């Protein structure tokens, strides 16, 4: 039971990354590689501030602000510098690595004996692992609710239109560059916020903790889409959270079968690849069944 509760809690807090990446990957229609830098940036910022006596909640907000600044850099390189988005993200990610080393004053920093949002007096009264479930549900409710409200406003619709068709959006007077920069800033702010939360759950920050993060975030998005099919935009945000939990259950099952935890990134890539191939395989099998039925009726 504790293992299942832990998997649900992990799925909830990691879903923040999926929501952040959704803004660029699905709405703006490009993959932002800088998230592999902003995730440890958020973790490093929060851990360093908490280590120096700053309130954990304020530290998480500061982490989100740091992520937004990183997104701003990527956005300016892409929109004003005309650097391809993939390269702009890689440049930002590379620069952030050195920044994280300076923030942590080393490769990692522990939160041992430090107060965090997950080990407060109230959280310690909860059953084992229920603290991550409680915090994860509150955080997701606030983020999903905020995104649903934002995307239904005129500004949010302009943001969506920019991703759908930038040329048409510009013809309606929408500044597509500003919308793209906004999307990158909000996306990376959420990613960094998730990094701050996960660092507190892990008890440390490390400069290398961002490796493979984009695969994990994509898995939440893709698994949710495959599991629930066509949904409205609002329900797709909820599906990401459910997809993140499903993903954690899959990893839990695989690890219970005896796989080496060092293979986690490999397993993550395999799970994502299978999720991406599922619609294609379903289409192939559907065609084969139709052809088989047609032949049978002909005979």
TrEMBL record:
Keyword check for Nucleotide-binding, yes or no.
Answer: no
Location in the cell? Cell membrane
Write out the entry's keywords from A to Z: Cell membrane, Membrane, Transmembrane, Transmembrane helix
Cross-referenced Pfam families: BPD_transp_2
Kindly list the residue ranges recorded as spanning the membrane. Answer: 12-31, 57-78, 85-104, 129-151, 181-199, 211-228, 235-258, 264-281
Q: List the InterPro entries hit by this protein, alphabetically.
A: ABC_transp_permease (IPR001851)
**How does the record classify its membrane topology?**
Multi-pass membrane protein
Quote the protein name from its UniProt record. ABC transporter permease
Q: Which organism is it from?
A: Periweissella fabaria
């Amino acid at each position: 039971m504790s293992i299942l509760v832990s998997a649900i809690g992990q799925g909830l807090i990691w879903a923040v990354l999926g929501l952040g990446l959704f803004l660029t990957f699905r709405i703006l229609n490009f993959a932002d590689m800088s998230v592999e830098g902003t995730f440890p940036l958020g973790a490093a910022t929060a851990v360093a501030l908490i280590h120096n006596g700053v309130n954990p909640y304020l530290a998480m907000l500061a982490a989100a602000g740091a992520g937004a600044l990183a997104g701003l850099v990527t956005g300016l390189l892409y929109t004003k510098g005309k650097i391809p988005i993939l390269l702009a993200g890689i440049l930002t990610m590379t620069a952030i690595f050195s920044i994280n080393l300076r923030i942590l004053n080393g490769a990692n920093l522990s939160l041992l004996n430090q107060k965090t949002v997950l080990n407060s007096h109230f959280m310690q009264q909860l059953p084992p692992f229920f603290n991550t479930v409680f915090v994860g549900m509150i955080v997701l409710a606030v983020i999903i609710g905020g995104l649903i409200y934002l995307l239904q406003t005129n500004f949010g619709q302009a943001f969506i239109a920019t991703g759908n068709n930038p040329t048409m959006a510009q013809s309606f007077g929408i500044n597509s560059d500003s919308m793209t920069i906004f999307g990158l800033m909000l996306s990376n702010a959420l990613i960094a916020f998730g990094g701050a939360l996960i660092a507190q759950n892990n008890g440390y920050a490390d400069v290398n903790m961002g490796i493979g993060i984009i695969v994990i975030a994509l898995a939440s998005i893709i698994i949710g889409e495959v599991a629930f099919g066509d949904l409205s935009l609002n329900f797709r945000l909820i599906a990401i959270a459910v997809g993140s939990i499903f993903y954690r259950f899959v990893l839990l099952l695989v690890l219970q079968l005896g796989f080496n935890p060092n293979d986690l990134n490999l397993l993550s890539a395999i799970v994502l690849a299978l999720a991406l191939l599922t619609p294609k395989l379903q289409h192939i099998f559907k065609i084969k069944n139709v052809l088989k039925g047609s032949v049978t009726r002909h005979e």
